[in-house]
Structure to design on (785 residues):
């Protein structure tokens, strides 16, 4: 018989006699999604995805006991994963409740809850910030409950706690057969010593039993502060509080639900396994990825007010900056997977970090990290300068941008060398941020040097990339121009951090680039990664009969995160209605597609026969939902804090569907910006709440008509009533991709693109015609009789 904790003396057992029903599934304003028994992998239950925001994640299936991988985490040392909890079940009065016949299965930010027809409930939550989880069972009318734990083969040595004294017994063969558990899964029946209708059990894990025990003690300590030692209630409240700092209601109910789930999804990727960071995606990007982290950081941590966490993530990556002489000098890692597994094969990870660090300082108003940021910039610039061409453009390897897929680790599937357009925009951003910071600290010599380098880069971009009304995607090493249409063009518009003081492209060029790229690539489900009229375009991501999936990865496949820069660029030119067509579809994907509550990494470039979107890649991707959240705050609401300058920029581009807005937006001064907007019949009425701390707003967008002097909020509410500016004609989205005469070139055989690249065809023809792509290689010609 075991009471509460197995590895030490009894610690803080808590009864639940005073809990209000339903205890296991508390009602409240945390988001929830009803799941379906079909619609998931292999037509089974929808996928359930959650994390402990530390190092473990849950992959389960709705209405199933053992679907998915269960709760797992990386091995404490060496490669592979530890399988810890494969599933669980509830017994009421000794009878197993069949999950397959449950009344409902509901996704929550912390896990999921299952309700049965007799009113009994079973639920799981992953404990935020700890390698631990809790399971709860509840029955009506005084009936007794027990829990069946289905433990993975690496679960030995965990710490255990329960809400009441319990017995832990080995389950019999009948239970094993009933739930379909294979022999390698340990089945443990947890029965209260005294019959009870409510039971919660808690499992903590660690490298050693001592570590697991320490985690349990920490959880119990947190629960004693305000929750009487109730670990279940404390865990749920900790999750709920983490979702409440940013609040937005718009009048578009579907968007509002998706927005709240996107915030919850972003929290899923928090990790402390290698220091504060963000996973890139689930299930297979559970590492600290530099580029992904800093693209996702504004939408994950800044707009939600987690400024301290954002700074901790920045400092964690900064400590890995490579300061050794060589081609990777000045870079932060592309990936940190273990202390001995740190890769620097990214040219853009460091610029994205620098841009995110500058935004963090502006959002928080905290200048304490600026000296460290200046040092990081100096080291990065020093490492980058040997790679500049004669005109000041930054050279790089062909697969060192975000389009980084390689053929068996060799040639790039989508080569971007040796000067890609978004890399030049990011390089320019580093220089103008460096100039801005140097000016703030009175270092005029460094400010002038950086500003001159930025101006030189801009001049070269306009001279070399802007050709015949098109913005090139890259320059080749020999100076040839590749004008393939890819979503990177939007980043030349969205990346510049100080466009008024340090423009990267002229406004008319930005407008043409934004409009033309949208007409070629932007579908409601997200942007294509390559225009459909390019012979290299792949209609499906996974098409094993014709190619490896990485051939399609950046050659047509939709990447949801690139909707972020597209919407930023569209909102700048008052095309929010065009942008919102994409946002609405992404909201639908969050609420309906697999995995519910998240956005996938990818979607096929073409629709399924039934007209459905087919998600692909990771089933939950950090930067996809982070950009969804960021777009709402920074682009549609138009809120961009510049607290280092004592101002918040407010340049809204409100979609027409946002008729009744309530917003609470955290700011670094500790007091949120609160306002309501009513948008009706050609007018907007803004009501700003009073503030104890005065705040100056610089107005633009639809508020520009209020006056150029801006607005200062203070101890009284402020009402602004303006006529909505006349909406410009909406720009068109791209047409649905349709196969050309003769069919898609990449489906005219096996590995068409791979053979072309490996034979040097893409070096000779960076933008191949159909005939060039399909022509026999030299080797094939020699083999022909």
């Amino acid at each position: 018989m075991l009471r509460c904790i197995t590895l030490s003396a009894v610690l803080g057992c808590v009864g639940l006699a005073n809990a209000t029903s339903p205890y296991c599934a508390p009602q409240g304003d945390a988001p929830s999604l009803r799941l379906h028994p079909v619609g998931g992998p292999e037509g089974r239950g929808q996928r359930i995805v959650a994390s402990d925001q530390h190092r473990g994640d849950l992959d389960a299936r709705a209405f199933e006991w053992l679907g998915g991988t269960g709760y797992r985490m990386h091995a404490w040392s060496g490669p592979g994963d530890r399988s810890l909890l494969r599933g669980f079940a509830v017994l009421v009065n000794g009878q197993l409740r069949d999950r397959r016949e449950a009344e409902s299965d509901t996704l929550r930010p912390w896990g999921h809850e299952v309700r049965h027809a007799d009113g009994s409930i079973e639920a799981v939550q992953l404990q935020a910030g700890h390698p631990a989880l809790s399971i709860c069972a509840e029955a009506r009318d005084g009936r007794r409950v027990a829990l069946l734990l289905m433990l993975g083969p690496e679960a030995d040595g965990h710490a255990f706690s329960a809400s009441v004294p319990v017995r832990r017994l080995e389950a019999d063969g009948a239970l094993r057969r009933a739930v379909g558990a294979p022999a390698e899964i340990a089945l443990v029946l947890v029965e209260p010593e005294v019959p009870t209708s409510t039971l919660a059990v808690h499992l903590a894990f660690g490298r050693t039993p001592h570590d697991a025990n320490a985690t349990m003690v920490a959880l119990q300590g947190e629960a004693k502060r305000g929750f009487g030692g109730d670990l279940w209630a404390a865990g749920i409240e900790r999750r709920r509080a983490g979702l409440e700092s940013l609040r937005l209601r718009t009048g578009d109910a579907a968007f509002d639900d998706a927005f709240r789930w996107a915030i919850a999804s972003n929290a899923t990727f928090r990790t402390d396994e290698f220091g504060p960071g963000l996973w890139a995606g689930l299930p297979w990007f559970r590492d600290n990825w530099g580029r992904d982290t800093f693209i996702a950081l504004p939408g994950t941590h800044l707009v939600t007010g987690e400024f301290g966490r954002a700074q901790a993530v920045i400092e964690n990556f900064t400590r890995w900056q490579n300061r050794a002489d060589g081609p990777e000098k000045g870079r932060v890692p592309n990936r940190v997977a273990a202390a001995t597994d740190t890769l620097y094969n990214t040219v853009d990870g460091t610029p994205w970090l620098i841009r995110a660090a500058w935004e963090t300082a502006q959002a928080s108003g905290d200048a304490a990290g600026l000296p460290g940021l200046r040092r990081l910039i100096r080291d990065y610039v020093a490492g980058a300068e040997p790679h500049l061409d004669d005109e000041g453009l930054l050279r790089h390897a062909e697969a060192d941008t975000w389009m980084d897929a390689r053929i068996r680790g060799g040639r790039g599937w989508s080569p971007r060398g040796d000067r890609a357009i978004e890399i030049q925009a990011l390089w320019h951003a580093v220089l103008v941020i460096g100039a801005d910071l140097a000016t703030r600290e009175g270092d005029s010599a460094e400010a002038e040097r950086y500003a001159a380098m930025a101006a030189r880069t801009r001049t070269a971009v306009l001279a070399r990339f802007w050709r015949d009304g098109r913005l090139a995607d890259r320059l080749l090493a020999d100076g040839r121009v590749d004008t393939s249409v890819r979503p990177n063009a939007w980043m030349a518009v969205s990346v510049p951090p100080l466009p008024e003081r340090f423009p990267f492209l002229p406004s008319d060029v930005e407008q043409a680039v934004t409009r033309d790229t949208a007409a070629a690539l932007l579908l409601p489900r997200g942007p294509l990664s390559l225009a459909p009229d390019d012979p290299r375009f792949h209609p499906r991501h996974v098409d094993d009969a014709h190619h490896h999936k990485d051939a399609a990865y950046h050659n047509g496949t939709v990447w949801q995160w690139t909707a972020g820069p597209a919407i930023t660029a569209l909102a700048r030119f008052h095309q929010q209605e065009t942008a919102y067509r994409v946002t609405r579809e992404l909201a639908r994907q969050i609420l309906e597609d697999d995995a519910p509550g998240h956005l996938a990494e990818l979607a096929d470039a073409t629709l399924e026969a039934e007209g459905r979107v087919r998600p692909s890649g990771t089933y939950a991707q950090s930067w996809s939902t982070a950009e969804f959240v960021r777009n709402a705050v920074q682009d549609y609401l138009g809120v961009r804090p510049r607290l280092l300058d004592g101002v918040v920029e407010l340049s809204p581009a409100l979609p027409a569907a946002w008729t009744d807005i309530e917003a609470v937006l955290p700011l670094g001064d500790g007091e949120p910006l609160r306002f309501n907007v009513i948008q009706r019949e050609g007018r907007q009425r803004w009501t700003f709440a009073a503030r104890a701390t005065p705040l100056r707003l610089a107005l633009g967008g639809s508020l520009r008509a209020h006056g150029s002097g801006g607005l200062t909020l203070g101890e009284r509410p402020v009402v602004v009533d303006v006529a909505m500016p006349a909406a410009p004609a909406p720009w068109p989205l791209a047409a649905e991709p349709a196969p050309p005469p003769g069919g898609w070139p990449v489906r005219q055989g096996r590995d068409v693109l791979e053979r072309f690249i490996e034979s040097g065809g893409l070096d000779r023809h960076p933008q191949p015609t159909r005939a060039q792509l399909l022509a026999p290689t030299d080797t094939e010609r020699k083999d022909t009789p």
